[in-house]
Please model this.
Amino acid sequence: MAGTTIRLFEDTAHAASYAAFRPSYPPAVLDTISSFIKTHSGSGFSSAVDVGCGSGQSTFFLASLFDGVLGVDVSEAQIQNAKAKRQKQRADVTTSKKEVEFRVASAASLPLESSSVDLVSCAQAWHWLEPASFYREAARVLRPKGTVAVYGYGNVELRCSSEARKLVSEFYSSLRRGGYWHENRRHIDDKYVEVQLDSPFAVSERKDLEMTCRMSLSHFAGYVSTWSGYCSFLEKHPHSTSLRDLQDGLKAALQAQGTEEDPLLDTTFPVFIVMAVTCCKGGVVLPQGTGPALLQVPGCAGELRVNGPRSIDSKPITITAFFPLPGEDDDPPAAAMHYLLPAAVIAMEEVNRAVETEGLYPYHLQLDLRNSSCDRFVAIHELMLSLEENLGSGNPHLAVLGPGCLDVTTSLSSLAHGLFLPQVTYANETSVPVVTPEEKREEFPDLFFVVRNVLHITKTGLRVMEHFQWTEQVALVYDDLPLYTRTVELIVRDSGGDFTLQVSSKTQITVPGDAFVAIPSDGRDNTVKEFMTGVRRLNIRVIVGLVGVESACAVVCEAKAGIVPGDGFSYLLVGAYQENWWETCSCGLEDADIESLISVSSQVKNTLSNDQFVLGSNLTQLKLDYTDRLNSWCPETIGRAPNTFFATTYDSLLALGLAIKNSLPLLNASAEDTSYSNTTIAPYNTSLFQAILNSLADSNFTGASGRVAFSSAGERMGVDVVQQIQSGKLVLVGTYHSETDRLEINSSLLRWPGGEVPGVFPSDDPKTATLSILIVVLIITITSNVGAVVLLGFVIRYRNHRIFLASGQRLNYIVFTGAFMAFTTIYILVLLESTLGPKLPTKLFTTFCIVRFYLLPLSFTCTFGTLFTRAWRVYRIFNNPFVTSRKYTDKHLIVIVAVLGVVDIFLVTVTAFPNNYGRFIARAEVDYNTYSACTYLGCFSENYAIVTGIVGVYKLLQMLLFTFVVSLVRRGVIERKIYDDSKFLAIALYVTAIVFMVGLPLQVLLSISFKIAEALAVNTVWVIVSSDVTLVAIYVPKLYQIIYKKVDVRKLMTQKSKFYLYSETRSTIL
Model:
């Protein structure tokens, strides 16, 4: 829209037509507005202003709801018509007793005081206004929680013949084609979809209704004559008969349908309403009068004691101070922030008391309390209101204090800079960082921080990492909250998959992509579990945590559960934590679980730490004074208020007060000129502003939170502390002085597991699988795999030989499938333990691990389960020599093998992957080092011991059963003196049982000791040996007999045995 108000409908004739022919809104519109006010606002129905009122249709309409209504319009002619209409309506009992006025005024400059009305309405006029100016002025005149309502009606629609509707539509379109409609008319056509009542408003709502009217043809023609498009057309074509032609055409169209001589038109109009509530509250000015006073200040139920200036003729210097000031119907936002206000009041009084004795007269400091609601638009609006209300009295407005939420600080700082207002923020150390030393100070030249936030503390943490040379094998985890995400954005750089943290020009810390993780609040446990899995897989040695207590607990608890090794491992946590925070963790952390953890925090705390302040106040007196005021103002805090004095708030106001005091000569020099204005800057005002700014930059005093001084970037200079947990207590081991950029670490106070600082593993460390071991394992596996393929080739070649047909060719293929599965598990291990493993995406790595979990038991089942079923078939035939071939076909045996495979899958699934059961086992009172190392060669499961135990015992029982059945078959074969391969099957089972019972426990023991290379070698030996021995023992003798024809099967056939040797296609009696 254009930047200025569009002025139309201003001639007298047009105004008269507008008043006579424009339709009136239906009662449903009034009901909608009333319902919205009652539901969302609650401001009342005492007064309203109707902007762009025209001839007063909507103004009189609102009078039935509000006690007083003011209609304003830029058109003098429209206002005169409205006033005339008001005179005629005096007899109307619904409006005669109501205060209804009309004035000529623009939407950008309403003739009303601030916070004076309950409703600002704009009916069928928004599209002619400049929205930003209208919104700003509406927010100014509305009371707290007042309502703004923008509504209108769209194009008329006829409920009659299609020919009549076509005539009206063509008439409207011809005006648009001719360019007679103003471009802003499109907003009406679009039904005000562009009306967005967000900031500085809240609780926006839209309603769509319908308005119906019955008009005569002459009245309808009069309505069309008020169209702005037709008025523009008529100015260029004053003798046009187009409107008369439209009226005649409509009459003919209606009479063609048998309508009476003077037909009436049924018309409808779409009505659209957009409403919102002001989200701001007016300020509370402290002090109010001279001497002590008890004041009702929003936020608490009691009274706050405030000491005013001693001099009755002292003039106030206003500082707009942003604090949460909830009303009766509001939920208190950040209740702990209520404790800040008494500290600011005491600091204001201290400044006034001290400067009065040194010549501040004729001025004193006053606080204009405002609520930003943590919304930048609200904060800007409140600051402008504060300026307007205080400068109107001719008092200087010199500074801004706060706000507490830094996500609105930059927007407020930009405005304050344009108004020559220095800004000091008291926000605590967990505030969202918005500016860094690397960013240009020119962007926020007037902003000063009296805290060191998480960004500053994180940079100290990076210096600590540089000191310990923790530059590689580092993981970074942070909570997905603005406080931490903004910090990460400012310190982390993407380096093509990996990430770097720049400490200095010489040092940078590298973080692998899979070790850089954000923790969502709604999926913390799963995310931390996956993160800690990557920590072990990537051989991470140091975890940097930008997290709150809950996530810190989750990370440390996962380590206790057995996801990472305990020896030589360290954490570095950045942030503000309560004392002994680990005692709140649900997993029951013990001292050993968090031993040697490093924590970095700021020594600039919200607690008094000095015995004497710069203004001479005693620490004990201030604390007693603070507690007394807080308890009288907020009785509900008695016994619950933290034993802290919010020192940074005190020091923020103290810094501003001292800076103004130091600029007193310039202020006194202009004392005779009381027209101080931050919007019309005089030369002396610029000088005064610069003097205050320079004095703030040069601040150097001892305050409640320690020494107060600022860097060139407006940041609080101070000391950060480095602490280490030792025997369940935080021990100070170092400090960082931001003013001199000096880190001091007392190495003699540090305690590490094993006595050494955790560092990067050397390349020949036995805890990693070396390249030579991997190559040997790979060669053995490939050789065995090739041998199996060759053997399978011979089996396929002689697949029609009676020996193979007798044993079941499909079953032979399943046996080989099991062997190839076993080889695949070795290939997966080699991949995961090689240098390629850490480079795999976490999900792919986990997928390989899961696949291997399933392949191991399935390979055993495919190989030995198949051989077992064949032996079992022979055993059954021994006991029932008259059994038919249909009872024990290969298909029956395959079904048995499949059932055994399903049991394997079920056991692995229910034991390896449920989180809750695994957590219960992991938290049992077991040796920490045992569980911390229960990682199956790089594939991590906190249930590893359960999986190994249950599946291992199950397979051992299977093997004993197989061996028993084979032994029975062996006795039967020997007794009957027939040819059978049961002795070779027995050899394979005996060898596999020995290898299994020795190899698997040995592999677990090596894994516990983190001897990955040895564990990998043992795993390879028992898997390869069992597979190779089985294939060789079962199939080489058969091939030998076939190739060298050592056995003639036909000669082995005898009627005495009555033993069936058969395949699916035939049976032969041996």
In short: The first helix runs from residue 12 to 21.
